[in-house]
Amino acid sequence: MREYRIATPRGILHAVGWMPAEALPGRCPIVLLHDSLGCVALWRDFPERLARRTGRPVVAYDRLGYGRSDPHVGRQPSSFIADEPRQALAAVCERLGLERFVLLGHSVGGCMAVHAAGVHADACEALVTMGAQAFIEPCTLAGIREAERAFADPEQMARLARYHGDKAEWVLRSWVDNWHSEAFREWRLDDALRQVRCPTLALHGEDDEYGSPEQPARIKALTAGPSVAQLLADCGHVPHRECPERLLDALQPFLADPTIR
């Protein structure tokens, strides 16, 4: 495991890379994009296990305002999902020399990965989304409100602060306030999905509390490249913690495809 501090015009990003002991020659790295409350540390041992199972290097980074990256100055703009490919992700790829990559995003990170697969179409070999939202459902907003109520418990906020430090309140408010804002009332991923040309695997827990199986179905239907939607049984919104071995079983054959370099 190797850690990086990456300078950007808006602050320093924290990134980590994992190299498999037996790397497959010519295979590009997998870049992980975390969820709305996530960070590198909350991937836990999944990046290392992913590198070992696929033979590919894995890179993860904390978005600005999260984890060990610098604080985000001011409120997160409503365009933050579409902005990520041209801002933080572009800086990470430039600093680490990632000319080609596979994108794997969880939840809102999956939405960002969809945008990035279109923006960086010449570099993106494949796209994987996990529990990503292609549109807003009533359960999406209800699930966020329920989580907000849970964070009224000081112990819950203390747990969040373990990963985000004094940025924890900003992290929570960015999640809750953006998704319930007027700007997100009609939000959809449709236009970004139509720009995706690479192979796509849309994974979704059958019991995901933030989105129905219509979410991966829409991702599959609208992406222009070869796409597969797969439901994970007995799994909610966080497959890499709830069923990591079955998740790896789903990822390995997809990423072993010889057309995905």
UniProtKB/TrEMBL annotation:
This is Alpha/beta hydrolase. Gene3D superfamilies: alpha/beta hydrolase (3.40.50.1820). Residues 29-159 form the AB hydrolase-1 domain. InterPro entries: AB_hydrolase_1 (IPR000073), AB_hydrolase_fold (IPR029058). PANTHER family: ALPHA_BETA-HYDROLASES SUPERFAMILY PROTEIN (PTHR43689:SF8), HYDROLASE (PTHR43689). Keywords: Hydrolase. It holds the Pfam family Abhydrolase_1.
